[in-house]
Structure formats: structure tokens, C-alpha cells
């Protein structure tokens, strides 16, 4: 089979460890310690205008059965035609996880009867998926229970049709079916069983979601079902053979995935320790009770009778198409994070926080560019200041104002002006917040606010010196003590001087002058 | 003047164009023949008004001096497997009884655009599964032919048995057929008409009720080779709605027709001289060889060594695909729904499909489901696909030595209705010569060669290289000219 392997141009200068090693996470059973082994199958809805094999719209939330073509309803004689955009998005996603892209892939039919499946089969890819082996890095995050970076293997990504939806609450004895979702393109992203703790499973899903959203191949809206995970969990004694796994279907949040791992692993441990055996089965998660329950066991599993779909030709990708896909990829989270750390000098924490979400880094990069422009400085010289502003100061102000704030006023230009004044020492951090508050409420110009509202620091040495003299005169005893070696009192003098200046003194100037006066 | 219903496509088109008669007169003539031929049961639904309306449009266009299409004024029959907008499309099944699609199949749409009109929807084996037209829910079609001195009812062939009977009995000058394992060629041979299955992908499958997707191909069934060329041209062409459709221009087959085979090589496959080949069929084959030599061709012996496995492979692949293709008939959205009191979803599926499908369809769904099942898939389906590849390779190497292949269409002349219904395997054996070309996706045609001692027609098959319909048609024309087949069934209905 023809295959390509894509490698990221930017090597990560991060501490990586390969998948498969065990985390410290252990379940303490009555008879000893247990390890957990986790694999995730994530279904991600492909961002596309039309369905995988028909031209119907994929818009979420439309009236039932208003987005159904003759093909979706499986009318006699209807034929599927692959949507190139869905193929393209799957390939781009594969490239984003450094995966092997299969230049030859094909669609298979998975046969079973259900009322939400008009064809009587789902068109999927069993034998020749479009994307092969890839990998995904989850970063160390001590607080989240991730002591080290870890690479999680991804076995494959294949493309398939979603099913429709049954509605059981419309009639006392009948079920209704809504085919709007039927035929929408999904990517099934299958991980290796490389995760060994709830934290790793959560981090994997969050990172995958982040990558999909960077790439633009899935909107990642888990509450709308655009992304959902089947969670495979088994337990074993440390170092022993893999245990029997269960698969908990359609878990739709990062938090729930972590919860499923936790409760399902505990359930299995309790079961085994009570003398029972884990059966391979499909389970459902009930978020209300926080438990999983059996849906069907392997014995009554379907025989899906997979075979190549004779209505469709194999998907054969040429080099030009692959080059186009590659060229269309944005800077991806790992590369961006590395660049933030190496080129912009950001802390690991800031880099991680900023790169997690598309919206966050988008705002940060715009603001950084704007600030650098008006200050005429290099981005790297301002990055930390802008990062702190973007990550904690600005969101804090926005949050404290609640409904009073109009986020539309929070332009990059307005914020850059505030950062510029702060950088020039014209305003203090506190004043920056106050000015931003007024901007958010009124949309007035930041510089005009600073002038009109007197929100500027005093850097005039004469004015500061006068206040310092007053403070020192009023605290002669403490001046003596300081000079006698009680260095800690320096802070007291700074505080008193700032208080006398109603907080408007430039702290750097105040410090400098105090040091001179106190000798 | 010759009776209009004796005319074929070309003669009608030319006559209408010249003003010798009107398209309406032609349609009226065939409508009348259909109305008086209920004993043949060739049509499931007659649509005389559709034919008249199309004819009137052609007459009006002619009166205005507009250019007329290649099928202008020609009313045709449509196998009831093609979706026709607003007209019941049943696939001869109970499960689709009453189903009137809101869409028109690509092939029928193209025919209407070329100026043809629809006389009605033709009977067939249910879901095109059968070789005798006895599996139709709407009753068997009776061949217009009879053995000399006998009034036993004969099979018109299948699955396009309504199409073959209608053309042979002058109920239509031509009809659409579909061919999965021989469903155009074998009924054409049984009824003394001409039919061609083009290269897989030539005609769009969009809007044709699927039997076995990797094998199904539409094609024309008509009085002679020229008419087939004209009609195939109107039916063929790339269709973006069918992923397996060939993205190639449609040649002007009619204009390039030539029965001069000088320089051509005709392959005679030795494996087709098998047990069960009727003596009269073998004799007809020998005649065919002489005729092609006479037309200037050189005859070469070829070998298609995997022929003996082709039939078995076909009867795994076709049912496998069918078992999946027919899953959509579940009573949920259209067609028959059998919902017993207190039934759940599974019960509804079971009741609907039990009532809606005939025995032959059920048999093939069961076979198909079995061969795709876990544990059997590799032994049956995968193995059958390997055989299919070998059969294709046989043809490809044979075509290094010859341009077209000549063989019988079927091992015997038409058999009596009921003669083979007790033994499905015996029925399947009748497809032995037609199935290999289907597995290889090759163009193949049946041309009448003469009558046997019982006075029944026999057919000769020409198999060509992929995309070389022209080579097939030309060899067919050479046979046709030399066979001089003019026999027609005596009207008894």
C-alpha cells in the first residue's frame, strides 16, 4: 500500500516520553494495586456544508427531516457520491497528528438494521482507512496529575456516515425518526490503549479537540454532539497482561470521560476482587448518577458483515492534493507552544494556556501585533506583558463587570493603547485595570480616559520628593530603625508614600527616590 | 404501407422526420398492441398517455421545424426497475407495489430528452433476480414464441423478460433492459431480438433499483444492431451522480457501424464447449464462426481457463451485494409496511420483508447474508472476488490475441415456464455463458442467429474489450447481415 509519513518541521524541545509507559495512577483495591488501561474512539463531525455522500445541509438544530435528500432517505436507486471536502478535512486532520496518510483507501458497508439507518448499512472504512498510524502529545501539567509529557499513539482515522436520530417522546406508542443528521460525515479517531489515568484520558481528549479546532476539521462542540468519545477501559495488576475491556459509548465531555474512567475502573476492580469477571460489553454512562450500566454484551453483538461498498470507487489521493492539504494547515498547538516559549520567551504555563484554544491565541496574537506596532518594539519584548494581560488581567476585569461590560468595546487597539501607557510608565497596573473598565463600559478612548479621569501616575520627581519628605518627617522613629538595619521597613515607606500620592506615584520613581533619601 | 408497429427505432425516427407518418400514429399503434396483449403479461403498468404526450411534442417540434432528437417519435417500454417520476416503480415486487418515485432515473431521463416516449413499465424477475421472469410478484411473462406444434407456455428469459417479450411481440419497437449476469442478453436470445450490455459504467445506475451494484448495467433491447447503437447512444454518458460512471465521451456508434471485419480477430473460447451445450446451439455457434470469417475476420482459438469458476463466483458476489442493497426495504419510509398488532421494530422488519419479498429474492438475501458473515467471509466473498479478478485477467490476456469473442448467449433455446423453477441451481446454470463478461464488466451483445428445429430463436454472443462497444456492434452487424433473421412469433395472444 502506498503511504506517506508527515513529520512536523518544528521539533519539540520538550521532555517527551513514549506511549505505553505507566503513570503513577493506581487504584488501591482490597487485594492490592491495580493499573488502568484506556483507549478512546472519538467521533468528530467533519466541518462541511454538505453531508458525506449527499448535498444536504449539515446545519445543527434545524426542524426534523428538513435536511434530508433522496440519498439520505435511501430511496430506491439512489447512489452515494463522496464529498471531497470531507476527504480533505480527514487528510488534514491526519497530517496534524503526524499520521500516515493512505493514498489508497476505500469505503466499506457496515450492515445492520435500525430505524435511524435508512440504507440498512453505514458507509464506513474498515479495511483501508484514509489515515493510518499517528500520535498526539499530552503535556506535563503537575496540577492536573500529569507529571511528564507523554505521547499517545493513534491507530487510525476513518471517515464514516452518522446515523439519524430516534425520538421516543412524540407519541405514546410510536417512535419518530429525524434523518437530518443521517449521512453527516464523521471522523472516527481511534487511539492506542496508551492512557493509564483519568487525567491522561481527559488531556488526550482536550488536546485532540484543540487540534481539530486549530485545523478547522471539526467545531469540537461536544454539547451539540459534534464530538463524542467511546471510552475503552480495562484494569490489570501492574505489569501483567491486559484485562478484559468494556466500552462506554457516546461520552460527551472531557469531565465525563475522566469520570467514566474512574468509575468504570473502580467497578471492574470491585467486581474482580469480589470473585467476578469483567465481560466484554458495551456500556452507557449516566451523568446524573455518575455510573455506567450495561447496554449489550459481546454475545448479542451484531455481525456487521462488512464488505467493500460496490457503489463507490476507491479513494485515490495524488501528490498535488496532499501538498495542498499540507500547505493549508495552520501552525499547530505543539509548534505554537514551542515557538511561544522559545521565540517569545513565555513561561511554559502561559504558553500552554494561550495555545489551548483557537480563540485565546487568536486574541493574544492580534493584541501582541498591535501593541508591538504602536510601541515600535519587538514582539518578544512585549510578549510576557501581553500574555499576562490576555490571560488574567483582561479576563478578570471583564468578568468582574458582568453585564455592565460590552465586549465589543474590547478591541485590540484599545487594549494596545492601555498596554502602551503602562509600558511607558504613564499608568500603573491598577490604573490600567480602571481604564479598561471604563473602556468596556463606555467605549471611550483609553488615552482620553487616562487624561480626563486623572488615571496617570506621577513621575515628577519634585512632587514625589515633597511627599517623601513629609512621610519621613512624620516617621522619624522608623527612619532611625531602618538606618539601624531594619531593612524590611523599606516597604512601609513605599506604602506610605504611595498612599500620600493617592496611588498615582510611579512605583519605580518612588523606590529610587526613597533609596536615595534613606541613604 | 408497412404496419407501423413492425418498425424499429431507425425506421420510426426517419419516417417521423420525413413526415411519412406522425409520432402520434406510431404511439397509438403500439398502445393498441399493448392493450390487446394482456395474455403475455409483459407490462406491469401501461402508460399510453405518456407515449402520446411525448409523440405530440415531437410532432409539434417537427411542425415548427425544430431539430429532432435521436429517438424522436420512438415510443419504448421501460423495465420496471428504472425509477420513473410519478409512475409506479415496483421492481416487480410486492414490497415496492404502489411506490411512485419523485425522481426520474438518469437513463430514462436521457431517453425522454432524445425524444422517446414511454409506453409503459415492463415486467421482470423480482428485483431482476431470475432467468425466466417467473419470480415477478405481478405474474410470469409469457413468451410470444411457441415451439412448433405446441401451445406450451415458454419463458421469455430473464430478468428483462417483459422487455424481450414486448419487443418480440411488437408491443414496443425497443425497450430498456438491465443486465447483471445476462439479464439483457439471455432474454434477447430467447425471443429473437438484439440486446447489448455496454461496458460497466457506460450507463448511469442512478435511479435504477439496485440488485448487485458492481455488476448492474443498463442497455437497450431492440430489433437489430443499428437500433441498439442508436438507443445505447441516447442512454449512455457520464453522470456525476453515479461514482462508478465512466467519465468518457459517448462515441457516435451509429455513424461508425461497419460489418467489414477485415483485419479483425475473433476469439473462440474452448472452455465454452462444455457439457450441457445443446447441439442446436453448438451448430449455431459454428454458423456464427463461418459468418464472421465471411465478413473478413480471422478466427483464433483462445482460452478462458477460469470460466468454470465464474458462475459460482457470480452467485456469491451478486447475492452478497443484493443482501445489503435490499436492506433499505424495511417498511419504515416507503413501500409496504406490515405492522402486526403489538409489533416492535424487529417484528415489523420481519413481517414486512417476509410479506414483501418473493422466494427467489429471499433465497438470494439468505445466500448473500451467509457469505458475508463472520467466519465465512474469507472462504466465500474474498475467494469469489479473487476468482473475479482471475476471470478478468483471462479476458485481458485473451484480448491480446483477438478483438472480440464469439460464444453462445445461452446453452439452450427458451425453456418452458415451470420447467426449471423446482431446481434453482439448474436455473442458475443457464447463465454460464453470460456471467463471465458481467464479472469482467465487458460490453457484450446477443444477436439472433436463426431458429432451431423447434422453431425457436437462438442467440449468439459477442464479447468485446472494455469501452469497445463499437467492435461488438460491428461484429454483431456482420452476424446480423449473414443470419438474415426475419422470423417472428405467430400471434396467438
UniProtKB/TrEMBL annotation, chain B:
Keywords: ATP-binding, Ligase, Nucleotide-binding, Protein biosynthesis, Transferase. Signal peptide: none annotated. GO terms for cellular component: glutamyl-tRNA(Gln) amidotransferase complex. NCBIfam families: gatA. Allows the formation of correctly charged Gln-tRNA(Gln) through the transamidation of misacylated Glu-tRNA(Gln) in organisms which lack glutaminyl-tRNA synthetase. The reaction takes place in the presence of glutamine and ATP through an activated gamma-phospho-Glu-tRNA(Gln). It is an enzyme of class 6 (ligase). One of its GO terms (molecular function) is transferase activity. Residues 31-473 form the Amidase domain. PROSITE patterns: AMIDASES. Its EC number is 6.3.5.7. The lineage of its organism: Bacteria, Pseudomonadati, Pseudomonadota, Alphaproteobacteria, Sphingomonadales. This is Glutamyl-tRNA(Gln) amidotransferase subunit A. PANTHER family: GLUTAMYL-TRNA(GLN) AMIDOTRANSFERASE SUBUNIT A (PTHR11895:SF151), TRANSAMIDASE (PTHR11895).
Amino acid at each position: 500500500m502506498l503511504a506517506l509519513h508527515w513529520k512536523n518541521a518544528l521539533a519539540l524541545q520538550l521532555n517527551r516520553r513514549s506511549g505505553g509507559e505507566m503513570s503513577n495512577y493506581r487504584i488501591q483495591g482490597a487485594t492490592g494495586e491495580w493499573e488502568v488501561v484506556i483507549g478512546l474512539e472519538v467521533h468528530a463531525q467533519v466541518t462541511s456544508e454538505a453531508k458525506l455522500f449527499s448535498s444536504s445541509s449539515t446545519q445543527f438544530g434545524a426542524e426534523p427531516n428538513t435536511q434530508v435528500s433522496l440519498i439520505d432517505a435511501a430511496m430506491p436507486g439512489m447512489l452515494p457520491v463522496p464529498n471531497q471536502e470531507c476527504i480533505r478535512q480527514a487528510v488534514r486532520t491526519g497530517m496534524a497528528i503526524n499520521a500516515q496518510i493512505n493514498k489508497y483507501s476505500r469505503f466499506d458497508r457496515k450492515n445492520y438494521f435500525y430505524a435511524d439507518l435508512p440504507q440498512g448499512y453505514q458507509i464506513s472504512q474498515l479495511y483501508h482507512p484514509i489515515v493510518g498510524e499517528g500520535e498526539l502529545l499530552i503535556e506535563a501539567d503537575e496540577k492536573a496529575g500529569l507529571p511528564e509529557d507523554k505521547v499517545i499513539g493513534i491507530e487510525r482515522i476513518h471517515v464514516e456516515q452518522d446515523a439519524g436520530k430516534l425520538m421516543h417522546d412524540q407519541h405514546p406508542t410510536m417512535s419518530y425518526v429525524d434523518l437530518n443528521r443521517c449521512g453527516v460525515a464523521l471522523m472516527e479517531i481511534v487511539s492506542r490503549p496508551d492512557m493509564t489515568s483519568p487525567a491522561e484520558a481527559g488531556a488526550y481528549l482536550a488536546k485532540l479537540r484543540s487540534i481539530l479546532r486549530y485545523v478547522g476539521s471539526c467545531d469540537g462542540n461536544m454539547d451539540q454532539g459534534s464530538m463524542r468519545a467511546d471510552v475503552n477501559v480495562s484494569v490489570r495488576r501492574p505489569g501483567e497482561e491486559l484485562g478484559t475491556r468494556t466500552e462506554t459509548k457516546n461520552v460527551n465531555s472531557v469531565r465525563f470521560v475522566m469520570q467514566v474512567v474512574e468509575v468504570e475502573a473502580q467497578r471492574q476492580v470491585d467486581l474482580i476482587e469480589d470473585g467476578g469477571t469483567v465481560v466484554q460489553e458495551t456500556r452507557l454512562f449516566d451523568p446524573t448518577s455518575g455510573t455506567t450500566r450495561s447496554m449489550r454484551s459481546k454475545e448479542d453483538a451484531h455481525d456487521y458483515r462488512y464488505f467493500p461498498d460496490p457503489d463507490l470507487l476507491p479513494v485515490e489521493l495524488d501528490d498535488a492534493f496532499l501538498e495542498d492539504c499540507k500547505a493549508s494547515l495552520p501552525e499547530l498547538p505543539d509548534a505554537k507552544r514551542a515557538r511561544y516559549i522559545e521565540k517569545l520567551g513565555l513561561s511554559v504555563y502561559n504558553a500552554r494556556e494561550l495555545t489551548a484554544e483557537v480563540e485565546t491565541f487568536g486574541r493574544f496574537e492580534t493584541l501582541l501585533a498591535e501593541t508591538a506596532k504602536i510601541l515600535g518594539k519587538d514582539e518578544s519584548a512585549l510578549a510576557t506583558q501581553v500574555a499576562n494581560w490576555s490571560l488574567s488581567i483582561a479576563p478578570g476585569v471583564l468578568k468582574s463587570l458582568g453585564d455592565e461590560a460590552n465586549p465589543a468595546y474590547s478591541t485590540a487597539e484599545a487594549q494596545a493603547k492601555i498596554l502602551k501607557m503602562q509600558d511607558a510608565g504613564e499608568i500603573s497596573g491598577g490604573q490600567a485595570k480602571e481604564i479598561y473598565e471604563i473602556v468596556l463600559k463606555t467605549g471611550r478612548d483609553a488615552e482620553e480616559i487616562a487624561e480626563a479621569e486623572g488615571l496617570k501616575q506621577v513621575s515628577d520627581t519634585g512632587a514625589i520628593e515633597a511627599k517623601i519628605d513629609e512621610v519621613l518627617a512624620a516617621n522619624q522613629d522608623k527612619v532611625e530603625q531602618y538606618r539601624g538595619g531594619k531593612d524590611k521597613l523599606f516597604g512601609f515607606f513605599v506604602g506610605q508614600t504611595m498612599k500620600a500620592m493617592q496611588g498615582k506615584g510611579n512605583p519605580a520613581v518612588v523606590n529610587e527616590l526613597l533609596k536615595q533619601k534613606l541613604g | 404501407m408497412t404496419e407501423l408497429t413492425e418498425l424499429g427505432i431507425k425506421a420510426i425516427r426517419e419516417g417521423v422526420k420525413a413526415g411519412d407518418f406522425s409520432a402520434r400514429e406510431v404511439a397509438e399503434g403500439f398502445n393498441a398492441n399493448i392493450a390487446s396483449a394482456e395474455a403475455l403479461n409483459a407490462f406491469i403498468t401501461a402508460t399510453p398517455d405518456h407515449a402520446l404526450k411525448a409523440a405530440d411534442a415531437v410532432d409539434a417540434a417537427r411542425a415548427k421545424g425544430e431539430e429532432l432528437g435521436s429517438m424522436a417519435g420512438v415510443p419504448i417500454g421501460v423495465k420496471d426497475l428504472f425509477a420513473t417520476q410519478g409512475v409506479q416503480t415496483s421492481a416487480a415486487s410486492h414490497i415496492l407495489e404502489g411506490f411512485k418515485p419523485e425522481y426520474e432515473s438518469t437513463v430514462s431521463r436521457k431517453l425522454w430528452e432524445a425524444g422517446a416516449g414511454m409506453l409503459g413499465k415492463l415486467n421482470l424477475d423480482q428485483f431482476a433476480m431470475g432467468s425466466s421472469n417467473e419470480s415477478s410478484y405481478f405474474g410470469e411473462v409469457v413468451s410470444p414464441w411457441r415451439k412448433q406444434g405446441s401451445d406450451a407456455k415458454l419463458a421469455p428469459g430473464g430478468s428483462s423478460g417483459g422487455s424481450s417479450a414486448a419487443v418480440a411481440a411488437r408491443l414496443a419497437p425497443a425497450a430498456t433492459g438491465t443486465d447483471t449476469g445476462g439479464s439483457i442478453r439471455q432474454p434477447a436470445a430467447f425471443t429473437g431480438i438484439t440486446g447489448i450490455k455496454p461496458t460497466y459504467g457506460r450507463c448511469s445506475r442512478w435511479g435504477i433499483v439496485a440488485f448487485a451494484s458492481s455488476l448492474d448495467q443498463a442497455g437497450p433491447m431492440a430489433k437489430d444492431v443499428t437500433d441498439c447503437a442508436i438507443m445505447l447512444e441516447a442512454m449512455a454518458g457520464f453522470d456525476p451522480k453515479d461514482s462508478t460512471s465512466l467519465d468518457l465521451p459517448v462515441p457516435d456508434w451509429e455513424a461508425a457501424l461497419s460489418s467489414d471485419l477485415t483485419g479483425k480477430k475473433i476469439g473462440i473460447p474452448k472452455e465454452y464447449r462444455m457439457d450441457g451445450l445443446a447441439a442446436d446451439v453448438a451448430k449455431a455457434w459454428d454458423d456464427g464462426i463461418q459468418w464472421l470469417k465471411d465478413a473478413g475476420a480471422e478466427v483464433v482459438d483462445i482460452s478462458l481457463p477460469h470460466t468454470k469458476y465464474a458462475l459460482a463466483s457470480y452467485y456469491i458476489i451478486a447475492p452478497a451485494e443484493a443482501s445489503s442493497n435490499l436492506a433499505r426495504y424495511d417498511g419504515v419510509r416507503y413501500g409496504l409496511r406490515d405492522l402486526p398488532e403489538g409489533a416492535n421494530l424487529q417484528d415489523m422488519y420481519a413481517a414486512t420483508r417476509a410479506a414483501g419479498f418473493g422466494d427467489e429474492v429471499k433465497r438470494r438475501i439468505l445466500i448473500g447474508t451467509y457469505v458475508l458473515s463472520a467466519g465465512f467471509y474469507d472462504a466465500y466473498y474474498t475467494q469469489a472476488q479473487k476468482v473475479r479478478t482471475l476471470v478478468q485477467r483471462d479476458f485481458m490476456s485473451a484480448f491480446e490475441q483477438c478483438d472480440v469473442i464469439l460464444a453462445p448467449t445461452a446453452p439452450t433455446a427458451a425453456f418452458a415456464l415451470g420447467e426449471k423453477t423446482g431446481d434453482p441451481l439448474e436455473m442458475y446454470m443457464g447463465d454460464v455463458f453470460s456471467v463471465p463478461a458481467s464479472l469482467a464488466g465487458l460490453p457484450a451483445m446477443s444477436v439472433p442467429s436463426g431458429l432451431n428445429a423447434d422453431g425457436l430463436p437462438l442467440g449468439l454472443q459477442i464479447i468485446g474489450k472494455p469501452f469497445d462497444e463499437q467492435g461488438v456492434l460491428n461484429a454483431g452487424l456482420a452476424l446480423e447481415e449473414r443470419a438474415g433473421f426475419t422470423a417472428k412469433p405467430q400471434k396467438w395472444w
